[in-house]
């Protein structure tokens, strides 16, 4: 009961926040983005033990799918990008919103398919090799897109801008992220209680044993990564609308920024827990914004120091620390009751 | 009794080391078969060959009449031929009940079943088996925090949960204290008689294996040295020499 109340209060805060703090709407939207990418990274990184450094590939790919779908519905994409701002291309509000409604799920589905194909190759790698392999995929993705003129090459691509006023636009973006984030949270909450959730945990703890017990390890790994890619791709699509103009290397396939941030968020909050990525994303975002505002010039140093401290001293994050200190909160206790059978 | 595992003329070498040379043996349905031999005689290599851990160089391995020497580990496990490990392997960060629940027989689960929660009946069954091996009280502890012997018992319970046709046990009593061993022998025998699971056991503890097995095979230097009933094996001079090092 108290749990329901807790969720209701959080829900109310989520709805009220952008109106109570209108100046922070973009910040809050970015916070939701961090929560989404952290939570979906944790599905493979925390729950399944496959630390991907390439999830940013799906973010970038999601952005480009959103652009291609939205623009392609109205104009030929090659002509639009070929004009490089020279031509005049207008989008009616109907065209804009239809593009938005179609491209967000399309980006998710396309990225899920990509995950199936890439996963089929990269899941042959284990441990750090998987991390490096997926990082390679993300970097290669960025380079390939930046050489593909049809979608704007290295110059990037511009989305149509929001047809109504800018304040309303920020609120719409905030709620798109929030809805996706909430959907992801409750999806994970359900998924981790199913046999599928237990199976990916088993893969994390001992994949060889899981195979020896007859678990379809490859199938589960592919599905888990595809689900993860779906949400990252959809979040990327929302980002495409939010940023309006983006280019491949620094914005879409930003391996050293968001690609690493999502991992740090999860490490801060605690790998392999439902709330860890959410808490970690909030902690990280606050830390990042404080250092970017008050230690400008030193912000990357502060961030590096944070990563070092987390990796050396708090590998299990906040939730892991609590689990170690207070195992009984997590139901880890001897039960002296007699068996009823 | 019919034959359930039929190993014929299997050879396996690692580089220049011949771990198994021309090994043939059969495991009878419903029985308890033992495999003994000095350290390094190729027992675990043979187990690994049977469950598909590595390709064999020569020979054939049949399970229920079906050739399995080309199949992959999870495929063989889903046929109902399961093994436990000499170095016990459990899922360390999950609690005992979760360890049990994930060991449900996956050959009986479809893809849609994977997206359902475990039923009350599954949980009851898990707790029953945990009670059977004496881990009921500790069922909510993380499996990785259990002692080695308890992990061994948990691994055995997980194997039972999987409802195998044949269970290959690699040194089930190693590292378990002598009092607990008696309990374990009793449980292994009950698994065989009550649940009808055919057992194929590697064991160094002679008291244990002589007590349990109907038939024993003895390996030495990767070759089949002797086979027979426990009484025959105990009296076989070659077996005694192999164990005591006379050459």
Which protein chains are joined by the largest interface, and how many residues does each one contribute?
A-B, 33 and 45 residues
End-to-end Cα distance of chain B: 37 Å
Mean pLDDT over all positions of chain B: 89
Strand content of chain A: under 5%
How many strands, what sense, and barrel or not for the largest sheet of chain A? 2 strands, antiparallel
Quaternary assembly: heterodimer
- Output the strand order for the largest sheet of chain A: 1-2
Work out the helicity level of chain A. Answer: over 70%
The topology string of helices and strands of chain A comes to HHHHHHEHHHHEHHHHH
**Total count of helical runs of at least 4 residues of chain B:** 9
Task: Report low-confidence residues of chain A grouped into runs of 5 or more.
Answer: none
Write a brief caption for the model.
The complex is a heterodimer of chains A (341) and B (247). Chain A has 341 residues and is mainly α.
Write a concise keyword list for the protein shown above:
A: mainly alpha; 71% helix; B: 247 residues; 6-stranded mixed beta sheet; 4-stranded antiparallel beta sheet; 9 helices; 10 strands; globular
Describe, in plain words, how this protein is organized in 3D.
The complex is a heterodimer of chains A (about 350) and B (about 250). Chain A has a domain at about 25-255. Chain A has helices at about 1-20, 25-45, 55-70, 75-80, 95-120, 125-145, 165-190, 195-205, 205-210, 215-245, 250, 260-270, 275-295, 300-315, 315-325; strands at about 155-160, 245. The two termini of chain A are about 30 Å apart. With about 350 residues, chain A is mainly alpha-helical. In chain A, α2 (about 25-45) packs parallel to α7, α3 packs antiparallel against α5 and α8 (about 195-205) crosses α10 (about 215-245). A two-stranded antiparallel sheet of chain A has the order 1-2. Chain B is of the alpha/beta class and about 250 residues long. Chain B is about 35% helix and about 25% strand. Chain B is built from nine helices and ten strands. Chain B has helices at about 45-50, 75-80, 95-100, 120-130, 150-160, 180-195, 205-210, 230-235, 235-245, and strands at about 5-15, 15-30, 30-35, 60-65, 65, 80-85, 165-170, 200, 215-220, 225-230. Chain B has a six-stranded mixed beta sheet with strand order 6-7-8-3-9-10, with helices on both faces. In chain B, a hairpin with a 2-residue loop joins β1 (about 5-15) and β2 (about 15-30). In chain B, α4 (about 120-130) packs across α5. The longest helix of chain B is centred in the last third of the chain and has 17 residues, at about 180-195. The termini of chain B are far apart. The mean pLDDT of chain B is about 90. The interface of A and B includes residues 199 and 201 of A.
